[in-house]
Amino acid sequence: MATLKKEIPVTAGAAPVWHALRDFGAVHTKVAPGFLTGLEMDRGDRVLTFFNGMVARERLVTLDDENCRLVYAVIEGQASHYNAAVQVFPEGDGSRIVWTIDLLPDELAPAIGMLMDAAAVAMKKTLATA
pLDDT per residue over 61-102, tens digit each? Predict the structure, then answer.
């Protein structure tokens, strides 16, 4: 199983960054606009459209306000297994987002890694003003 990890420093504090990240139905506007171009909620799942036209259905697994941690799974897509965790930590005057994805098959890791890099740019820019 491939594991991808991205640490994203953000100039905004942990509380406002977590407030944006925890809104499962607004990730396309509050976290990564431009990278994500659309979102529809469907029976509790979010169906995301990405800048490249790719569509993914994600299901919320855990929303942990105490630890500022959100876990989701992609339940429809190319991966046979895709589980991700996003957690926010205070760091100085700002914060740090740790985003970890476990996926199968391993061959998807390079493509997903490139998408994570692009998402991180959008997240850092958007969340700087959270």
Answer: 999 999 999 999 999 888 999 999 999 999 999 999 999 999
Q: What tokens were used for 54?
A: 């790719």
- Give the predicted TM-score (pTM) of the model: 0.94
When pLDDT is cut at 50, 70 and 90, the band that residue 46 belongs to is: very high
* pLDDT for the residue 125: 95
Residues 6+ apart with CB under 8 A from 117: 6
One-letter identity of residue 104 = L
Cα distance between residue 105 and residue 78, in whole Å: 9
User: In which band, very low, low, confident or very high, does the pLDDT at 130 lie, cut at 50, 70 and 90?
Assistant: confident
Residue whose structure tokens are 């100085």:
92
Number of other residues whose CB lies within 10 A of the CB of residue 61: 12
